[in-house]
Amino acid sequence: MRLVKVAVACVNQTPFAWDENFVHLKMAIEHARAEGASLLCLPELAITGYGCEDAFFMDGLQDTAFSQLEALAPLTHGMVVAVGLPIYHEKALYNAAALLADGRIVGFAAKQFLAGDGIHYEPRWFKAWPAGEVDTLERTGADGTTRRFPIGDLLFDIGDIRIGFEICEDAWVANRPGTDLALRGADILCNPSASHFAFGKFAVRQRFVVEGSRAYGVAYLYANLLGNEAGRIVYDGGSMIASGGELLARGKRFSFHDVELSTAIVDIDGNRREQARRGSHRPRHDAEDQVVEFPFVWPERKPEKPPKTTLSWEDRASVREEEFARAIALGLWDYLRKSRAQGYVVSLSGGADSAACAILVALSVQMAFGELGPGGVRQHLPTIRRLHDVLEQGGGANAAVGALLSCAYQPTENSGPVTRHAAEMIAKAVGSEFHIIDVDVQYKAYIHSLEKALGRKLTWEQDDLTLQNIQARVRAPSIWMLANLRGAVLLTTSNRSEAAVGYATMDGDTAGGLAPLGGIDKTYLRQWLVWMETKGPVGHDPIPTLRLINAQQPTAELRPASANKDGKAQTDEADLMPYDFLEAVEDSAIRDKHTPVEVLQELLPRYAEYSPVQIAVWIERFFRLWCRNQWKRERMAPAFHLDDRNVDPRSWCRFPIVSGGFERELAELRSYVASGAADR
Q1: pLDDT tens for residues 330-355?
Q2: Which among 206, 374, 492, 513 is placed 20 to 30 Å from 650, CA to CA?
Q3: Digit-coded pLDDT (tens) for 38-51
Q4: How many CB atoms lie within 10 A of CB 255?
Q5: At what angle do helices 612-628 and 596-603 cross, to 10 degrees?
Q6: pLDDT at 21
Q7: Closest Cα partner for 119 from 51, 47, 184, 64?
Q8: What pLDDT was estimated at residue 535?
Q9: What confidence tier does 118 reach under pLDDT thresholds 50, 70, 90?
Q10: β-pairing, 234-236 with 226-228?
């Protein structure tokens, strides 16, 4: 019985952070060696970082990446290590996985299927390697000598154990390379990945890992990146090792550590017997030129008892709520340390969005303390003096939140006592610094100045939007001042629903450098806040104070009730439409690319409580606001990607800034309703 102890490591990398990235890879190798692992799989493009974008074309980046690989090779004596990097070959750039064994570079497997949808732009930088093709990579060393390495669609025979590669997207396609590799006699498939977080995505990954191990009769090793690598994308880690259709090990997701290692013992001979029993695997003798042989002595292993599994947050019913909390918290933590900022600032309005931002910052600090401890937190944030002072005084996670988060409530005459009290209580509940910065004088001064220039009074009847927007904009200078004074990142509190219809004031409530809620809709956010009020993430207390937020109707609080026709207080849904309906239209129109009439036909049965005329009015309002506000979406602060409903044009959903505005399609919608077809 041939047993091999294998390992996969998820690492938190950063583009161009050469020294730090190398330390993490070295640490992963050392940890794997300490655990007795003979084979280690590291993530895709782990040497450079996945998010280098157009800098991948820099000769200096490519050369430095290869020199980093050469520096890693001597660390692999007695081990086999797979790691990803870009490789320039024959006037093209390839996304490759290098195989290192016993201190040497053995060769390179190149990615065959490039991710080019949604947030991925791999075809912009890389070329897809043709299936079945192999070649020789030549590199000239510093001493002038030329070295040659095999590259391409390769299978590596390392000490009579055959290792093949599916690199990230390769495993997501129907004709995945693993099928051919299995026919060529693969024993182990390594999958170095850079697979971003999205709701429900981990379950898909787990299926193709486990099913791949069963269908191919192999051990399957999956390694992923971890953390907020380059500012916009959050990688959740979640390493996996499967063999013969059984998941043997699963790594922690959303870890705050720089390296997360998982290990398992795989039975090579057992998998081979299963292949022989099923009779569905026959090595292709015509493909032996695609096999690279390398002598290696695999250490003898004895069976080990699998570690005891314990219940985690992923076993709870509220997985989506946990994922959201942990993804944004990790994204905020990494953004803070990698941007070298001194903390975060939030303009608390007393409403749902700003409260969620403050809570998520607090969670990021608390989760970091829980995993890293005070020493690890200090190490990750070495330049924040306020934080170090708190730690030196023996302060814990709650005190650290106060050092890293500052909130301010900025009222005008239209702000009410309910939101003021809610803002103050939320700041107190999360432990942040809190200020009240009254901007009513500035707001009225702007109105007076413009009235003097125009020679007339501004009125709500004639100048409604102008009077609302100036209140939002007058808050920006003071909150920016606070952020500048603290050397902190100002968080934009706008959510995805607001971005879709432009229900946000540019240079007002959109002011900020990062929009943690930009990828989530308002309806879900309100549900999440109810969950945070009553339950909260595993290991963290709920926040009962949130009842002050959850009991309110969402409102911009910019227009006095006396300016409304019904005399009632302003609410978002009265200005727009019910938020759940807005998200349904957004899904149908933007995600599913339906015309206005098709959206109506889809939503009529689901919203039977509304008349077809009312539904059509809201649909037309959505399309007009969507088209009119693309320029706002282009200017919104970067947001974390969470799912395929993102409207960020820089990472997911592109749309022209100026267009015909669906005029013909909206005319068809009105005709369809007028004809009575919607009533049938």
Answers
A1: 999 999 999 999 999 999 999 999 99
A2: 206
A3: 999 999 999 999 99
A4: 21
A5: 140
A6: 98
A7: 51
A8: 96
A9: confident
A10: antiparallel
pLDDT of residue 281: 56
Tokens of 196: 């971003």
> CA of 390: how far to CAs of 338, 363, 373, in Å?
21, 18, 14
Residue 638 CB partners (closer than 8 Å, separation 6+): 231, 232, 513, 514, 515, 518, 648, 650
- Token duo for residue 24: 């993490």
Q: How many Å apart are CA 368 and CA 98, to the nearest integer?
A: 33
Q: Give the model confidence (pLDDT) of 207-226 as tens digits.
A: 999 999 999 999 999 999 99
With vertex at residue 464, the alpha carbon angle to CA 479 and CA 517, rounded to the nearest 5 degrees, is 40
Rounded-to-integer distance, Cα 479 and Cα 481, Å = 5
Q: Give pTM, 2 decimals.
A: 0.95
- Residue 407's closest CA among 383, 385, 437? 437
88: nearest Cα among 113, 62, 114, 51: 62
Residue 426: phi and psi, rounded to 5, are -65, -45
Q: CA–CA separation, 188 vs 164, rounded Å? A: 6
| Calpha distance 26→49 (Å, rounded) | 15
Q: Which residues pair with 225 in a beta bridge?
A: 11
Q: So what CATH class is 3-301?
A: alpha beta
CATH class of 577-680: mainly alpha
Topology (CATH) of 314-569: Rossmann fold (3.40.50)
Q: What is the pLDDT of residue 310?
A: 65
Average pLDDT over every residue of 566-595:
92
| Residue 60 pLDDT > 70 | yes
In the chain, domain spans: 3-301, 314-569, 577-680
Instruction: Provide mean pLDDT across the span 430-448.
Output: 97
Pairing relationship of beta strands 161-165 and 246-250 according to DSSP bridges: unpaired
The whole-angstrom separation of Cα 17 and Cα 488 is 22
Structure confidence at residue 559 (pLDDT): 84
DSSP state of 510: T
Are domains 314-569 and 577-680 of this chain identical in fold?
no
- How far is Cα 100 from Cα 73, in angstroms, rounded to an integer? 6
Paired residues of 262 in beta bridges: 8
Residue 89 CA to residue 208 CA, distance in Å, equals 30
What value does the mean pLDDT take over residues 364-388? 96
| 257/652 Cα distance (integer angstroms) | 29
What pLDDT is recorded for position 311? Answer: 62
- With a cut of 90, say whether residue 315 has pLDDT above it: no
Q: What share of the chain is helix, strand, coil (3-state, %, to 5)?
A: 45, 20, 35
φ, ψ at 288 (rounded to 5°): -65, -20
Rounded CA-CA distance 59/52 in Å is: 13
Q: Is the pLDDT at 202 greater than 80, yes or no?
A: yes
- Token readout for 561 is 């009730």
Say what the pLDDT of residue 213 is: 97
CB atoms within 10 A of CB 379: 12
